[in-house]
């Protein structure tokens, strides 16, 4: 029976009255159909299809719709996702290996992790409107510095294994490449050792994995630049490394400790026994395991190494009024500045997760953390006593914290499987070693019932009836509860910030106090070009905190995460459809890590097909590229050769052809962004790719601008061979104040055999000739993949295409509105831009010394975050509105920009003082406006309320313009004494 199609009065799009009422596409896309039509008319088009056809070159346009299921309603799909989630079995994990159960305090779960005021913030490049997250990250740094016993900590890295790899590179850099050997103890977590090998291979570091007792300080070119130890070891032993660090110091070798953060509350910190660098994971400080991520890693070191520390550092400075002000310190975007000379390619870190862990530390305080540690250790001691009663024993008599490795009693060595199965019957996962021994790790979720179930499992399925209090008393009588000579004696986390917020009322108010100091998508659009700050819908975010997705260990048996498996397969197929590629690896857990992984795949492909000594290691990169591109290429062992851009911002084809010909025998890859970094669909993209292929290279496409491709074209259609996808941009994973991110890679058929593997748990997409792991967990940060999965399912093929078209429309509408007063730097031959555009502000600096920094700070007075500054062209602003912003918000931002242009014009006409004006003094804080003194020739009204809408909703920057030079001269990267807060 035919269904009558009746247009619904509440849906501007299409459909019939029986369709679901909670259609997501119209919720995600900001402009209504009426507003879309108005914008199209301004631009001279009658439909979105005609408009997008005018922008996308004909030879790369998709001719068929995406083969992705139709859009689904929010309520209906979340119900279906519940069914998928229930295929995951949440067992109690005793596997350890750097991943443990934890309890996220509800006040932090609800008010940070699930709060768009926190998760929709951007990286704090505009510090005046980011003081809240900067303070939370400063707290994180202080906590890490105190616990590790080293004075300088960073604001987070990707995961523990990646942090160890960064520390290895740091050791080599500190030695100025004169010592290229590195020794890693075989007592480290296996995933860490694999990532070290992957990184060492690309950079030519001579890595040796072996017993620490056999260390050879002469290993490698120039000897050892560094060595890595695990503290406690992967099987739980607490070793005293003081003698080792003394020997290393004599040999000029740095010592890196990969440490357990909770253990450091009761054990002598690495800084006190001589470690130079400390790394690890803050996961157990309130962040669910999530089958592997996302989690904040940490790194700390001595202040002498500050210039070599990878990632971000938060520092204390002051504003123009002398108030304490925080900002990112020491070359905050070092890879964008130094490019192929950078020490790291890190761009996205794990800010949101570091913020959660810092609040966890604030909420529990030093006493609470020690109580958790002592309780965890006590349960472990009681368990060991019970195991000894059963005739089993530890493999070592060294001290331990929360992890023990068990050898079954005499005559029972062959019964390992029986014990494991008995544990599985009780929904407990153990760690299995190749020699038949078993590992058990406890955590803050442990209780008497878990210990009883573990003892029953080791009693081959029979409950023992042991009394846990008796077992604990026995352990205490044996002195097992004491950590002896390695017990911590130094204080930590003594700052008042960690000792004042232990009631929920205090914690709630502190969280909201900091949140209110930050501008996020909850306040206004964040028009950052190349960063794609789109809606992070609530329905997309809900599954992240479901236990079925959050409470799984990454190395649990795959039979326990069948729901994840289904989601992985469907998401991979959808991303293959979007990119046009044959396969996708979900492992890279950041965009820059996706770049690195993709280039390693290309490198492995060339090495596999090499003839004789021919080595393809040259990577061509346009001068307009993201700074992470050349940094990633160097990390992958490639030699960077820049390619010029022409006057229109496009790749200079003559220079490209000449460089490709010059390096024909050694050409490995070209890295290209599409649409271009200048915000234009270059018509020569197919020719660009053909040139590279003719000379034996592969084309790597940076997926930063996929927001302009989905449903209209694809990397494969353009001719690329591999592309990483920033799921935190195009596919709606929120930026979280600077992370988390995900950067999966899609590859053409010839590259499929080289997709990343993993030595602990091989992913299904690992190729026959797989490169080594690039992330600690086999699927990167799986719990946030649910966000992109829900987004694609709710949008469907038509919705995804429409989102791309509206993103293009919004950008072109704004460019047209601003073009009368600002120069739009790059357009195509018809005057169009892609999903972002560049406003040239250099003339203002020349005429009246108004810089883009002045404009950025003045935008704060209007309630907006600045567009991207000085990238890819110095003295410019790059604006990207995204499809999720309604026309009213686009207009509001345009009006703010036009008002600022008029203020500049007033300075040009001499009507406003050239030095004492609203732009030079911006941002204007409430303290400035409400002060008794007003030393400015313009009024308070013009300063704080230059537009009528600001009377209805005004965001106040917490501090005035920050003095970055003062902060660099007086570097403070941990919480200052309370006197300085007064």
Provide an overview of this structure.
The chain has 32 helices and 26 strands. It has 982 residues and is of the alpha/beta class. A hairpin with an 8-residue loop joins strand 11 and strand 12. The longest helix has 39 residues, at 351-389. The protein is globular and about 90 Å long.
Characteristic terms for this protein:
single chain, 982 residues, alpha/beta, seven-stranded mixed sheet, globular, disordered C terminus
Question: What is the gist of this entry?
Answer:
Helix content is 37%, strand content 11%. With 982 residues, the protein is of the alpha/beta class. Helix 2 (33-43) crosses helix 25 (785-818) and helix 13 (416-425) packs antiparallel against helix 14.
Counting DSSP E segments of at least 2 residues, the number of strands comes to: 26
Q: What is Rg?
A: 28 Å
What general outline do the C-alpha atoms trace?
globular
**Looking across the biggest beta sheet, what order are the strands in?**
2-8-7-6-5-3-4
Roughly what fraction of the amino acids lie in strands?
5-15%
What about the largest sheet?
A: 7 strands, mixed
What are the SSEs and their pairings?
Blueprint: H1 25-28, H2 33-43, H3 48-55, H4 74-85, E1 92-93, H5 106-113, H6 116-119, H7 131-148, E2 152-153, H8 160-174, E3 181-185, H9 190-203, E4 206-210, E5 224-231, H10 242-250, E6 254-259, E7 277-281, E8 297-301, E9 313-318, E10 324-329, H11 334-338, H12 351-389, E11 393-394, E12 403-407, H13 416-425, E13 428-429, E14 431-432, E15 438-441, H14 448-458, H15 468-477, H16 504-515, H17 538-541, H18 547-550, H19 562-579, E16 583-585, H20 591-609, E17 618-622, H21 628-635, E18 639-643, H22 653-662, E19 667-673, H23 685-694, E20 698-702, H24 715-718, E21 722-724, E22 745-747, H25 785-818, E23 823-824, E24 837-840, H26 842-848, H27 852-861, E25 868-869, E26 876-879, H28 887-908, H29 926-930, H30 940-944, H31 949-952, H32 964-969
Parallel strand pairs: 1-13, 3-4, 3-5, 5-6, 6-7, 17-18, 17-19, 19-20, 20-21
Antiparallel strand pairs: 2-8, 7-8, 9-10, 11-12, 12-15, 14-15, 16-22, 21-22, 23-24, 24-26, 25-26
Helix pairs in contact: 2-25, 3-25, 5-12, 5-16, 7-12, 8-9, 12-14, 12-15, 13-14, 19-25, 20-21, 25-28
């Amino acid at each position: 029976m035919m269904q009558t199609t009746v247009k619904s009065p509440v849906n501007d799009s299409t459909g019939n009255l029986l369709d679901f009422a909670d259609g997501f596409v119209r919720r995600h896309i900001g402009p209504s159909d009426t507003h879309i039509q108005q914008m199209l008319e301004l631009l001279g088009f009658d439909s979105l299809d005609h408009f997008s056809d005018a922008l996308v070159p004909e030879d790369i346009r998709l001719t068929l719709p995406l083969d992705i299921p139709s859009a689904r309603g929010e309520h209906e799909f979340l119900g279906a996702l519940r069914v998928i989630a229930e295929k995951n079995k949440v067992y109690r994990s005793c596997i350890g290996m750097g991943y443990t159960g934890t309890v996220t305090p509800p006040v932090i779960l609800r008010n940070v992790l699930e709060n768009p005021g926190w998760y929709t913030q951007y990286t704090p490049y505009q510090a005046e409107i980011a003081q809240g997250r900067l303070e939370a990250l400063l707290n994180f740094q202080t906590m890490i510095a105190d616990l590790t016993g080293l004075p300088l900590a960073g604001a987070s890295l990707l995961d523990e294994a990646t942090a160890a790899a960064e520390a290895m590179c740091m050791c080599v850099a500190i030695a100025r490449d004169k010592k290229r050997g590195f020794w890693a103890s075989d007592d480290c977590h296996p995933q860490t050792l694999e990532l070290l090998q992957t990184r060492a291979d690309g950079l030519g570091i001579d890595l040796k994995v072996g017993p620490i007792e056999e260390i050879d300080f002469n290993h490698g070119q120039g000897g050892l630049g560094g060595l890595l130890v695990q503290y406690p070891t992967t099987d739980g032993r607490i070793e005293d490394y003081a003698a080792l660090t003394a020997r290393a110091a004599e040999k000029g070798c740095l010592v890196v400790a990969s440490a357990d953060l909770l253990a450091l509350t009761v054990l002598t910190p690495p800084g006190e026994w001589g470690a130079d660098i400390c790394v690890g994971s803050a996961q157990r400080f309130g962040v669910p395991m999530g089958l592997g991520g996302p989690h904040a890693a940490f790194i700390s070191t001595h202040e002498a190494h500050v210039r070599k520390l990878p990632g971000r550092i938060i520092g204390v400075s002051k504003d123009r009024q002398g108030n304490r002000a925080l900002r990112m310190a020491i070359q905050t975007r070092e890879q964008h500045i130094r490019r192929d000379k950078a020490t790291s390619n890190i761009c996205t870190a794990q800010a949101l997760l570091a913020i959660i862990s810092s609040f966890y530390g604030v909420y529990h305080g030093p006493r609470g953390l020690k109580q958790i540690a002592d309780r965890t250790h006590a349960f472990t001691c009681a368990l060991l006593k019970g195991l000894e009663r059963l005739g089993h024993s530890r493999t070592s008599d060294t001290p331990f914290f929360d992890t023990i490795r068990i050898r079954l009693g005499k005559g029972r060595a062959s019964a390992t499987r029986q014990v494991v199965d008995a544990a599985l019957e009780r929904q407990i996962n153990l760690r299995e070693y190749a020699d038949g021994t078993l590992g058990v790790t406890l955590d803050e979720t442990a209780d008497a019932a878990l210990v009883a179930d573990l003892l029953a499992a080791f009693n081959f399925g029979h409950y023992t009836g042991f009394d846990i209090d008796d077992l604990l008393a026995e352990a205490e009588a044996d002195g097992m509860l004491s950590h002896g000579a390695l017990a911590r004696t130094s204080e930590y986390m003594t700052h008042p910030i960690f000792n004042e917020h232990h009631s929920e009322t205090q914690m709630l108010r502190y969280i909201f106090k900091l949140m209110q100091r930050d501008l996020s998508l909850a306040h206004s659009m964040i028009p950052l070009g190349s960063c794609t700050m789109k809606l992070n819908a609530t329905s997309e975010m809900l599954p992240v905190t479901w236990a079925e997705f959050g409470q799984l260990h990454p190395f649990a048996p795959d039979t326990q995460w069948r729901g994840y498996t289904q989601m992985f397969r469907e998401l991979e197929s959808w991303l293959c459809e979007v990119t046009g590629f044959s396969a996708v690896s979900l492992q890279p857990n950041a965009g820059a890590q996706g770049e690195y992984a993709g280039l390693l795949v290309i490198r492995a492909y060339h090495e596999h097909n090499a003839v004789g000594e021919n080595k393809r290691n040259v990577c061509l990169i346009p001068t307009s590229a993201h700074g992470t591109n050349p940094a990633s290429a160097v990390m992958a062992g490639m030699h960077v050769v820049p390619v010029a851009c022409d006057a229109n911002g496009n790749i200079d084809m003559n220079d490209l052809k000449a460089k490709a010909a010059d390096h024909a025998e050694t050409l490995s890859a070209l890295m290209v962004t599409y649409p271009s970094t200048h915000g234009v669909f270059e018509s020569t993209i197919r020719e660009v790719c053909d040139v590279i292929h003719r000379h034996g290279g592969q084309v790597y496409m940076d997926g930063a601008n996929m927001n302009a491709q989905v449903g209209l074209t694809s990397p494969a259609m353009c001719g690329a061979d591999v592309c990483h996808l920033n799921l935190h941009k195009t596919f709606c994973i929120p930026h979280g104040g600077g992370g988390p991110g995900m950067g999966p890679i899609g590859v053409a058929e010839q590259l499929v055999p080289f997709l990343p593997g993993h030595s602990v748990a091989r992913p299904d997409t690992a190729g026959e000739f797989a490169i080594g792991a690039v992330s600690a967990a086999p699927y990167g940060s799986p719990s946030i993949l649910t966000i992109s999965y829900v987004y694609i399912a709710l949008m469907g093929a038509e919705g995804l295409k429409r989102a791309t078209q509206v993103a293009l429309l919004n950008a072109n509408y704004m460019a047209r509105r601003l073009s009368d007063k600002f120069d739009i730097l790059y357009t195509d031959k018809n005057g169009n831009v892609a999903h972002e555009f560049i406003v040239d502000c250099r003339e203002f600096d020349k005429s009246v010394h108004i810089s883009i920094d002045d404009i950025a700070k003045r935008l704060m007075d209007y309630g907006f975050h600045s567009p991207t500054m000085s990238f890819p062209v110095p003295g410019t602003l790059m604006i990207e509105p995204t499809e999720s912003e309604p026309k009213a918000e686009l207009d509001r931002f345009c009006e703010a920009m036009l008002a600022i242009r008029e203020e500049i014009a007033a300075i040009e006409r001499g009507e406003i003082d050239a030095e004492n004006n609203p732009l030079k003094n911006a941002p204007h804080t409430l303290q400035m406006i409400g002060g008794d003194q007003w030393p400015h020739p313009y009024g308070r009204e013009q300063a704080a309320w230059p537009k009528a809408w600001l009377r209805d909703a005004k965001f106040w920057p917490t501090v005035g313009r920050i003095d970055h030079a003062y902060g660099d001269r007086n570097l403070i990267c941990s919480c200052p004494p309370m006197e300085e807060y007064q």
